[in-house]
Specification:
Length: 381
């Protein structure tokens, strides 16, 4: 989430260095089970039937037929205000079973983050609207552009097509009257032509980084949707929908230890779930200092630990998880805002977006390939 001009500019500088950055970074440790990738983008990606990769670079589509080594120049800009490379992805791209391309994104025309620290509330001019647009001809033309949420919104990590055919996005929204974030879903039953919103998920809290933030989502084997929500409570909270994102009726702690940072959740071809995220404390430590960084971020101090990126799997639709394995460390910096692409069955590409050295200096994003079986069964088994 964007909080002030200084942090936003640091993140922008980090993104500008992505294409030229080398995979190795001073002080960075990468788990030997991981293989570094040389690829200039960190998603979100779509894989076409012939194996071609598609990525949205700011506001144009690019494709690669050689596994990400080289990319097309891209066509005409999709629309004004779109910039999926600005401070993370700030949008998600989906290709439906019918072949429609659907994008939900944050519109940077008129963008302004404005928070009154004395009042502990957003100002009236705080603005980053959420919009949707789609293409039914492979990205040649775009139609049905519409605003989903006014006011201020931020990054989100869940966008899927459910087995029943509806497409569902889990998003966050800053509620001025509550002075905190709430989460919800938007769903469409006509490939993104029209949208409806679910009920709000409100976990309480107070501050520009407090509440229910940056949700991620998968569909379980029983057809229910599972949402994992970033919080400042030392763990993800989870919510379930029995009706493909129309309502979220069961909301409770997940028990998954987590820093105040988002993760990425995905269902794999094997049927397992994979989760990558920042735990609340270093591996082998029982505690980690809590703080209320950058002013009134949250009602109570929280862990903002982001030096390690962990990976875990679930065999039972998220009820239990394997022991987390640290796949990379950036000492005194951060490896945060991860993304997973299952490139081939059992081969996961893992990336980070907000990636910093000590002191917020931009660092090359993490980009590695891992084998599912190496982490579930152990190497050589």
């Amino acid at each position: 989430m964007q909080i002030d001009t200084t942090l936003v500019m640091v993140a922008i500088l980090g993104m500008l260095g992505v294409a030229a950055a080398e995979q190795g970074s001073p002080g960075r440790w990468i788990n030997p089970l991981c293989t570094p990738l040389e690829i200039p983008f960190n998603g979100p990606f779509i894989q076409l039937e012939d194996g071609t990769l598609m990525v949205m670079d700011k506001n144009v589509l690019r494709t690669s037929a050689d596994g990400g080594k080289t990319w097309s120049e891209g066509g005409e800009p999709i629309c004004a205000g779109m910039n999926l490379g600005h401070v993370g992805h700030v949008g998600q791209l989906l290709r439906t079973a019918n072949g429609a391309l659907v994008v939900i994104y944050l519109d940077f025309d008129g963008y302004k983050f404005s928070w009154d620290n004395a009042k502990g509330a957003p100002n009236a001019d705080c603005k980053l609207e959420m919009w949707a647009i789609r293409s039914v001809d492979g990205g040649k033309t775009w139609v049905d552009r519409q605003r989903l949420l006014e006011g201020y919104n931020a990054d989100f990590m869940g966008f899927i097509q459910a087995s029943a055919g509806s497409i569902v996005a889990t998003v966050e929204h800053l509620k001025p009257e509550l002075k905190r974030w709430v989460a919800c879903s938007f769903y469409s039953e006509d490939d993104g032509k029209t949208w409806r919103r679910s009920n709000w998920i409100d976990l309480g809290g107070h501050g520009h980084h407090d509440g229910a933030t940056e949700p991620m989502m998968v569909e379980r084997g029983d057809g229910r949707l599972l949402m994992l929500i970033r919080t400042t409570l030392g763990q993800f909270w989870k919510a379930y929908s029995d009706d493909h994102g129309r309502y979220w009726r069961v909301i409770q702690p997940s028990g998954i230890d987590a820093s105040s940072a988002p993760g990425w959740l995905v269902r794999l071809n094997s049927g397992r779930l994979a989760l990558t995220w920042n735990q609340s404390k270093p591996e082998g430590r029982d505690d980690w200092p809590k703080s209320n960084f950058a002013g009134p971020a949250s009602e109570h101090p929280a862990s903002w630990y982001r030096e390690e990126l962990s990976l875990a799997f679930s065999e039972d639709d998220g009820e239990t998880w394997t022991k987390p394995v640290v796949i990379a460390r950036q000492p005194e910096g951060q490896l945060a805002y991860p993304y997973i692409l299952e490139r081939t069955p059992g081969e996961l590409w893992v990336f980070t977006r907000y990636t910093w050295f000590k002191g917020g200096k931009p660092a090359p994003p993490l980009a590695v390939s891992v084998k599912e079986d190496d982490f579930v069964r152990g190497p050589g088994n």
